[in-house]
């Protein structure tokens, strides 16, 4: 007994003092990188030791491990946490890894049923994954009788519902619907859904009383809410008004709120919206805004905000719309026809001004979210995990958003590198960690944290994806190593096949 205790004490002492006892103290060591931690401000050339998936040592001393990564000239950062990822498929994950992402969650549209979503990924995820309970999907299930089967983007549920009246989108608040819709959302929360997503910009018919009531359910479960707010417009009723509605809900229900892509909703009123969020926060509302670093959005032809009169509302014309599948630029007439005949057609929409996007990028407290959409082949299937880069069509942000932000930071220095990393990882983890305790150990480059780590060359990191045909899914470069839960999943810029270190990010399951 005594001897065993002595050995344990010796091991503990070795760990504590960092005395190198053998050549293989660590599973992985990352050597000579610029180690940056946004929470503490730590920013030094150091060595990082990893054991059993955890960061166990950060030191200027020499350390050795079974595997050594030379990070000279590179930044060693907390893996990027993306709370706005609709690209919930293996090819999408592969592109995210090349872009430095270690956790990709769909908190905006969310998923439904939640158990189906998590079941899909079990044992086959290369990055950490999670989803909120999607209010519109829950409505679809109840009001349209269509099962979104977890990942609704990857089956015919959306098209089926649009072809059949889409009550989830068009039906106004009816107290008689509420028990069933509430029960559906509650089931999702019991199944561990991360929060409740209210992308009400896509179903503006939904009544405010319904949103208020469902947000109250989120509060009961200690969860948070998110929103793609109402009124994508810069004239009344504007995106600003939509933000006010959700901030009011968050305030009165006392529930944390993530407001997605501020520039995309507020357009010319972006600075006013950012001020509104700051003011709400100063008054005790737990609210954060989000941005993505592009001036064109991704949408579909029948979106609420593209109904007749959209030109004045958004300050655009039909010529600012491009069909993703063909690359065809539309005009007012062509678009009206398309909306009538093919309402589900995916579009790029050049709706934002550079100065508004930059205002959100620079504003302290505004977090990064790629809003990456699924990529689709011409036949409507999504590219498989092994598909060549360049395959598939979709908004390039699904492949390059994070590296694009880092490139902007290098070229123009709108924020410091530390501020950028904070927006890419720590701030969202910090916002979520009360509701989702797993985030207490992520988004930080510190001893004791989980080893989700992104290693990039600050002088070379760049996006390579663009809107041009064949370029939508070109992977980012300058990010040679990514570790997920301590596993080197991107190695010399190659995603390692047949390794699936991703784990579910999920709230406690309470329905079993
Ligand atoms: Zn959105």
Question: How would you characterize this protein structure?
Answer:
With 512 residues, this protein is an alpha/beta fold. The protein has helices spanning 2-17, 90-98, 114-121, 135-144, 157-162, 167-170, 178-190, 208-220, 239-253, 262-266, 270-282, 310-314, 332-341, 354-362, 397-412, 417-432; strands spanning 26-36, 43-51, 54-59, 65-70, 75-78, 80-82, 101-111, 128-134, 195-198, 224-227, 257-259, 287-291, 297-300, 321-323, 346-349, 367-368, 453-456, 481-484, 487-491, 494-495. Strands 1, 2, 3, 4, 5, 17, 18, 19 and 20 form a nine-stranded mixed β-sheet that branches. An eight-stranded parallel β-sheet has the order 6-7-8-9-10-11-12-16. A three-stranded antiparallel β-sheet has the order 13-15-14, with no helix packed on it. α7 runs parallel beside α8 (208-220). It has a domain at 88-295 and 352-363 and 373-413: Metal-dependent hydrolases (TIM Barrel). It has 16 helices and 20 strands. The longest helix has 16 residues, at 2-17. The structure holds zinc ion (ZN). Zinc ion is lined by residues 108, 199, 228, 260-261.
Question: Brief description of this entry?
Answer:
With 512 residues, this protein is α/β, with parallel strands linked by helices.
CATH topology of the domain at 88-295 and 352-363 and 373-413: TIM Barrel
Number of helices: 16
CATH superfamily of the domain at 88-295 and 352-363 and 373-413: Metal-dependent hydrolases
- Fraction of residues in helix: 25-40%
Tell me the radius of gyration: 23 Å
| DSSP E strands, number | 20
Task: Give the averaged pLDDT, no decimals.
Answer: 94
Which residue ranges are poorly predicted, with pLDDT under 50 across at least 5 consecutive positions? Answer: 1-21
CATH class of the domain at 88-295 and 352-363 and 373-413: Alpha Beta
Tell me the β content. 15-25%
End-to-end Cα distance: 41 Å
| Distinct small molecules | zinc ion
* Outline type: globular
Biggest sheet descriptor: 9 strands, mixed
Global structural class = alpha/beta
| Gross CATH architecture of the domain at 88-295 and 352-363 and 373-413 | Alpha-Beta Barrel
